[in-house]
Amino acid sequence: SMLISFALICSCQKQDSAADQQLAQQKAELDAREKALDEREKEKALAEREKATPNIAKPPAPVQAGTPDSSQVRAERDRRLKQLPPEVHMLLPDPARVEDSKDEKDKRIQERLGERQRSRLEELQRMRSGASGPPPATFANPLAAPPAVEATSPPSLAASPAVEAASPTPSPTPQ
Prior knowledge:
The chain is 69% helix and 0% strand. The chain is mainly alpha-helical. Among the domains are: 7-52; 93-128. The two termini are 24 Å apart.
């Protein structure tokens, strides 16, 4: 009886460790995907801006000893914008609207990140509490690998040393 209890505890710890490892891996994959998405969105916005501005011959910038002051850069940009014809001004986005949409986008991204973290935390807590039942049919991350078989197997089979020794696949947790 005591041996079975000890085996169950060890099995739960092993499942908990596997769940933690899987969660960390999924978080790393998600972070990498979000970085890639941000980069693609920045590149796309830059390409759209370049398409929106007409091909105006720009004089070569004079070589400066240091980095130009932000007020100088702003003044130069404003001076060049004033030289553009009115038709082009209509094509340029309003800086206030661009800033607002950027803030809105950042807010949505932060909300999505918080939502994902909460759902992962809840999932981890459910796994730790030993809630029985089938795992959810959908995954938040469709490219992630499905949960390990050990995490869904009954504790009595996972706790048996004979079953673990006969298993053709190694355990995902270091021992």
